[in-house]
Amino acid sequence: MKVARSKWTILIANILVPISILVFSSGFFPYKTLLTGFATHKHTISDQIPPGVFDKVIFMVVDALRSDFVYSQHSGFLFTQSLIRSGAALPFTAYASAPTVTMPRLKAITTGSVPSFLDVILNIAEADTSSTLMHQDTWLAQLKAKGGKLVMYGDDTWLKLFPGMFHRADGTTSFFVSDFTEVDNNVTRHIPNELLQDDWSAFIMHYLGLDHIGHKAGPNSPYMISKQHEMDSVVSMVYTALEQEKHLETTLFVLCGDHGMNEAGNHGGSSVGETSPALLFISPKFQRLETRNDSPTEEFSDLQYYHTVEQTNITPTLAGLLGLPIPLNSLGVFIPELLAMWDHGPHRIHMLLENAKQLLGAVKGSFPSYSFEFDSMPVICSSQSLSDIERVQCAWFRVLEILNGSGANHDSEASSEIESALLLFLRNAQKLMSSAASDYDLIRLYVGLSISGFAILLTLFPAKRLLVNFAPAGMFLGFSILSYSTMMFASSYVEEEQQFWYWISMGWVVYLHVKYAGYFHGKSIQKSGPADGHWPFEPSPPWFGAAALAVSYRVLRRWNQTGQKYAAQPDITGSFFPSHQHTLWALVILTYADTCSHLLFNLPASVLWRFVSCVVTLAAFLFKLSLAASDSPELLGNSFLQPVAMVTDGMHLLYHARMVLCGISLLMIYSLYAGKARETTHKGRGKCSSLKHYRMILTEKRATEHHLSRDSHSFPVDAIESDEHTRVSSF
């Protein structure tokens, strides 16, 4: 009866777990109110839409272009820095809110809205079509509605977001991080011809090589400067065309990163490096503003070079400069430094007022119970304790008050006052809407946590006997679960989760060692007794084990740095092995030799089995060697295996990989067949599981973990097809 009750309790608990996840997820991924339709210019006869300063845009995205890659003294963007000094380029640092992965950031850049973490899942789903922006208002859609043609070369995320939008396009796929060169050459080769064409209104480029270098070797990689020089040469090519080609005289050139990267070369989180991409508006027309800046500039630890703006500000700024309506769901604010492109005060006021009305519409859609009519102005505006929505209300009422008071008289002083009031409203509204877009449904979060907590309580009763019978282990398990669950409520602990497991696992091992050492020492005492008044001390296996454990623990901690805080610190795989290549490859050979010996002597014994085992192990080792030669040649430069790698250089990696996988599959099938034929015992099944372990060792293709991409888009086939001129995504 008790057994049946325990089964039902466990069943109910397992049903409650997915329910709790669904409830929690519904609160964690908040619903965003989106306005439908497309924006249009709404004006009366007395209104005059300010003329667009530009009629075309060249939009160049360099994936993971962190601000210091362009602005610092160690940058390779020398020509770009000369444009900043001459005033032809206006530099900014664009704040990219988390999640800092490609698809959400492109949504922010094109719609002006704040993306959600749900977009991270869509960013990984290569075949996903639900993330399209075809039916949302973007500056691309506005250009298309105006009769313009769009062309795009680079990251195929653009093609997924805007299917059927581009007149000409050549996209690159997202899953091959080893390619630093061809993936960018496939973009650059189109530039000379497109710069001669005059049929497009927007020319979009999205380069990925710099992001790949970051994932492979970090921001301090020796490949980074050469890639920056390459991107700088593209900027030089485009700017030269802006100066020389007559049909490009009124073309705006925008250079930006979709996100940055941290010191490990990763992105997706909210560290300073990940949220600080560069942003530049470039045109010979900007020189008349005489806004010259020093470049390169001094280093900033927070990477906030020049003026920091929200990345969503790109959308209304582009719309205004191109004479387009601001997309309906934009939460961006027109960048004030570019208002000077209009000489007349009324034009600048009109731009800000259009931006304010558009953002006011978004506020009304999210807060329908609040009134923004002038005759309903509350008295609380003089209060010091206003909520965010009340600050937005009061800022808008101040705008209406100034507009009604000034009438049509926009002298210099009145224009300045109106601009200041409009910018204050825009910033308050942007802050309000940005926070509202990421508001979590706390009630659902609490309900989800409560359901999961109840499911845990249900499992305690069936687990009671186990916990009682193994009291120390049960107590430690409960303590570990409770500590880990508590730790998940702090983001800093989540980022450094490995530290928890380092200490908790070693704590348990130390406990086991002390317990075993005491038992062993007690046995020794009972056997020998005291001699000369002293208990004998004999070196025993526990002490040797403790020393070995301490050494191995220290080595493993330094083997590969991870997390956020210490990810860029030197480690064995990234610092020691590249400079000690003989040691690296000796360890690799020993690993494969040990694997081969286990396959030969611990599993089915037959001539065929041993022959295939030797061939497959040798093929797997040669595949690792070939891949290192093509993917990380610096690991073989001074190695004694360099001549062997040169011999295998002509073999196609894809076919080589298939041969290894087929050989491993053959071993597994033969092992299962032999085991079944002999009516395998429990011991035999253990041997089969051992084969799976050896299979994992054989298929580990990287020489060092340091050279694995830490991007969520990096799959085990990343470098096998690097010669297919494709790339890994910018996650």
From TrEMBL:
It is a multi-pass membrane protein. Pathway: Glycolipid biosynthesis; glycosylphosphatidylinositol-anchor biosynthesis. GO terms for biological process: GPI anchor biosynthetic process. Residues 437-694 form the GPI ethanolamine phosphate transferase 2 C-terminal domain. One of its GO terms (cellular component) is endoplasmic reticulum membrane. It holds the Pfam family Phosphodiest. The chain crosses the membrane at residues 12-31, 443-461, 473-494, 500-518, 607-629, 653-673. Keywords: Endoplasmic reticulum, Glycoprotein, GPI-anchor biosynthesis, Membrane, Transferase, Transmembrane, Transmembrane helix. InterPro entries: Alkaline_phosphatase_core_sf, Phosphodiest/P_Trfase, PIG-G_N, PIGG/GPI7, PIGG/GPI7_C. It comes from the Eukaryota. SUPFAM superfamilies: Alkaline phosphatase-like. GO terms for molecular function: CP2 mannose-ethanolamine phosphotransferase activity. It is found in: Endoplasmic reticulum membrane. Ethanolamine phosphate transferase involved in glycosylphosphatidylinositol-anchor biosynthesis. Transfers ethanolamine phosphate to the GPI second mannose. Belongs to the PIGG/PIGN/PIGO family. PIGG subfamily. PANTHER family: GPI ETHANOLAMINE PHOSPHATE TRANSFERASE 2, PHOSPHATIDYLINOSITOL GLYCAN-RELATED. This is GPI ethanolamine phosphate transferase 2. It comes from Aspergillus parasiticus (strain ATCC 56775 / NRRL 5862 / SRRC 143 / SU-1).
